[in-house]
Amino acid sequence: MTQDPNAQAQIEPTELGANAAETGDRQLTDETSDAYGSHEVGVGNLDFATVAEMGHTATQLDPLAPAVLSVDNLKMYFPVKSSGVVRRTIGHVQAVDGISFEVPKGGSLGLVGESGCGKSTTGRLITRLYKPTGGSMMFEGQDLAQLNNKQMKPLRRDVQMIFQDPYTSLNPRHTVGAIVGAPLEVHKIVPKNQVLKRVQELLEVVGLNPEHYNRYPNEFSGGQRQRIGIARALTLNPKVLVADEPVSALDVSIQAQVVNLLQDIQTEFDVSFLFIAHDLAIVRHFCPEIAVMYLGKIVEIGDRETIYGRPHHPYTQALLSAVPDVKQAAIGGRRERIRLEGDVPSPINPPSGCRFRTRCQFAQEICAKVEPPLLQIGQRHKVACHFAGELGAHPATPVTTALLGVDDQGSPVSGAAPTNTQLTIPGYEETWYDLKTRQTTGV
Amino acid sequence: MTSVPMTQSSAAERDQHEGPFLQVENLKVTFPTQDGPVTAVSGLTYSVEKGKTLGIVGESGSGKSVSSMAVMGLHDAKSAQISGSIRVGGTEVVGLSESHMRGLRGNSMAMIFQDALAALHPFYKIGGQLEEAYLVHHSSASKRDARRKAIEMLDRVGIPQPDRRVDDFPHQFSGGMRQRAMIAMGLINDPSLLIADEPTTALDVTVQAQILDLLQDLQREFNSAVIIITHDLGVIAEMADDVLVMYAGRCVEYGTAKQILTSPEMPYTWGLLSSIPDVTASTDARLIPIPGNPPSLLRPPPGCSFHPRCVHSSKVAGDLCSTELPELLPASSGTAHLKRCHLTDPVGVYRSEVLPEIAPELVEETR
Ligand SMILES: Nc1ncnc2c1ncn2[C@@H]1O[C@H](COP(=O)(O)OP(=O)(O)OP(=O)(O)O)[C@@H](O)[C@H]1O
Ligand SMILES: Nc1ncnc2c1ncn2[C@@H]1O[C@H](COP(=O)(O)OP(=O)(O)OP(=O)(O)O)[C@@H](O)[C@H]1O
Ligand code: SF4
Ligand code: SF4
Ligand SMILES: [Mg+2]
Ligand SMILES: [Mg+2]
């Protein structure tokens, strides 16, 4: 959170420390220790074909998979307090403001967007490290948003989190065995005398030497520590894993190891992922579906081919155009890109109407007046923009007027009833709004 | 006020000297530690001409920062042993006194550090820090000149309302703005050589794009020689003229960005390319990790430092890979492309084995 626009306001952390793992002391150890390699199973004498075989291609979409998690109009507002003796609430950080999406069973939804747009907050809401301000999160017939801590306890096993930083998320004073085994004992999953056996199995699953259960985290490299974190998250056979920047703290050569491991786990245990990351290329590889967030809202969501190939929201287009491309080496020079001016506005006081309008090159009057709905415009594609269209083909007049009952400037048309019946459900409808004909169509 | 041993005229001479502006030859940097000497950089040779950009990539701990800090003269003589030659504008800087070095730093050359927050002093205003950097090398300038220059630089790097923001403290800037302030600091004395050590790693892609634009514009304007250190091969592809690939303190491959990224000849470089997905790659491309972990510099592996992790060493006769350090020799793809590897037919291996897995669409095209 380096670019936190709220740095100056006094912000009341909610349920901070709910997650002891994250507040564990960072131990700065001498990284020159050279025992790393020996922790791993089977590195020596591999040939390229074998290693290539272990590498995975991009995860494919299963369009028929049912939703395991269904999030509807989810909100998280953090109170902002005044300084002084009597600390009054003087505003709210609208960190997550009414987002809806589904995570398909055994699939993965990617969550991308600029720093501070609310990705981690969304992850923490789903794992119930925070209690949402509003909205619902349906998981196996229960609304996680409504449950109290006691009711949540049995469900915590099912929804687990993998953290960003392998250096701070493991308690340095506990052995790897204790770290991975703790959830087993807390939830009394296996009899005490079987914990060790299960821990060793899990270490093997993540490619670590099972004999090393009695070593401490500082004896492992960053990539290996991240695998310990993954083993810990797997102990309870979760159904949903929230992976918040699981590889960004790792050296590039190690990132691929961890991504492949997560793909293996997904196929083997049928785990569903909410995959949060800055790196748009990693997200594209891991996630057949992607949601793009901007300032607490989802602005575009859809399948990989649509989001990366034919994005319709000006922010998605700018974001993708900014990614440097290795293929450019063959051509030389920089790629054409859309330059975004200015900084992200404060989530305490977001712009009226469309939140992206202060930086959008297509913004018009209507954008300041009316918030664009997240409209389904294809079989698996939703976008929130009055002028939604492919790059270079944004329409001259707003596409949303008939649906919202407003004119081209965004003023209400007297007598016109809004016809939009499909305002943001978590999943996709059978029919959608066709941008060309401006009519509802279907398959 | 620090004395400035370099006079204006010698600075002018430096700028006019023949050949590449920066020439590093056979650089070796060793740190004595409790466990024994750590050789972080050895046998490193490269050069950068004015107006050109060299990209340095490599594993974490491969010596990218250590070698660049040697160029900047930032190692403590007591804790680092440096040998070889580093010539900046013709001036040999290895063994140069700290006061001479200070004259060069921030004037002829400047560095943008990995961590902008650590490099800016939290208790002083951004403007004050810029002014100081300017005054160190312009002792005859007035305080007002320095302030004007500070505002001008903030404006150049795209800080809105620079005349107001100049009085902000670092914590009042966002991450991207701090990074830009760092760049303003690095460029305030129009350095002929700029080293940017992971200038955009912690930033959003949109902010990264702004910073890279800025670096390129400024380079064009001042015709500086630029070194950019990054782990992002996309940044390398779009910014660098030449690329230096480092592994365990050594150069393992060197060439133009096009040579390194389209016809690499060394297995570590292949590993790097295949372990990073690309935003436009085919979804049939595999993500192939480099197995194992980086080597210890305390007890570096014998022979090729990459051999414990190399999946192609079986194609080399005998146990050459684990016994003999390969020399840095010309590669087949063209002049000035160098590689350090015993493989006899790297091009064939890359085309027939590696490429079909990591970029199946390219194989189709070249058929
Ligand atoms: N516990 C908290 N209390 C108050 N505000 C918070 C809290 N956690 C996050 N915020 C604010 O909510 C917004 C969203 O933060 P969040 O961490 O979800 O962003 P993010 O998308 O994960 O960003 P990054 O990419 O930098 O990790 C930010 O403005 C942040 O400052
Ligand atoms: N003062 C020092 N004493 C001992 N060893 C050092 C010292 N400074 C650096 N090293 C070692 O030198 C090696 C090279 O470090 P360097 O910082 O150059 O790596 P790098 O390539 O910049 O890596 P990264 O990508 O992580 O920044 C590392 O193994 C590091 O631990
Ligand atoms: S609604 Fe308007 S401001 Fe928002 S993205 Fe679309 S065109 Fe831009
Ligand atoms: S010299 Fe041998 S071990 Fe080293 S990179 Fe080449 S093939 Fe691999
Ligand atoms: Mg986050
Ligand atoms: Mg470094």
TrEMBL record, chain A:
Gene3D superfamilies per record: P-loop containing nucleotide triphosphate hydrolases
CDD domains, sorted: ABC_NikE_OppD_transporters (cd03257)
Pfam families xref list: ABC_tran, oligo_HPY
UniProt feature, compositional bias: Polar residues: 1-11
GO MF assignments: ATP binding; ATP hydrolysis activity
Protein name, per record: Peptide/nickel transport system ATP-binding protein/oligopeptide transport system ATP-binding protein
Keyword Ubl conjugation: no
Sequence similarity: Belongs to the ABC transporter superfamily.
UniProt region (Disordered), positions on chain: 1-38
Residues passing through the membrane, by range: none
Superkingdom per UniProt: Bacteria
NCBIfam families: oligo_HPY, PRK11308.1
Cross-referenced PANTHER family: D,D-DIPEPTIDE TRANSPORT ATP-BINDING PROTEIN DDPF-RELATED, TRANSPORT ATP-BINDING PROTEIN
The keyword Translocase appears for this protein: no
GO biological process annotation, one example: peptide transport
Record domain ABC transporter: where: 80-320
Residues in the signal sequence: none
Keywords, sorted A to Z: ATP-binding, Nucleotide-binding, Transport
UniProtKB/TrEMBL annotation, chain B:
Membrane disposition: Peripheral membrane protein
GO cellular component terms, A-Z: plasma membrane
CDD domains membership: ABC_NikE_OppD_transporters
InterPro entries: AAA+_ATPase (IPR003593), ABC_Ni/Peptide_Import (IPR050388), ABC_transporter-like_ATP-bd (IPR003439), ABC_transporter-like_CS (IPR017871), Oligopep_ABC_C (IPR013563), P-loop_NTPase (IPR027417)
Primary location: membrane
Subcellular location: Cell membrane
Molecular functions (GO terms): ATP binding; ATP hydrolysis activity
Annotated SMART domains: AAA
Keyword annotations of the record: ATP-binding, Cell membrane, Membrane, Nucleotide-binding, Transport
Domain of life per record: Bacteria
One record GO biological process: peptide transport
Domain ABC transporter: 22-273
Gene3D superfamilies in the cross-refs: P-loop containing nucleotide triphosphate hydrolases
SUPFAM superfamilies xrefs: P-loop containing nucleoside triphosphate hydrolases (SSF52540)
Family note: Belongs to the ABC transporter superfamily.
Protein name (Swiss-Prot/TrEMBL): Peptide/nickel transport system ATP-binding protein
Organism: Nocardioides alpinus
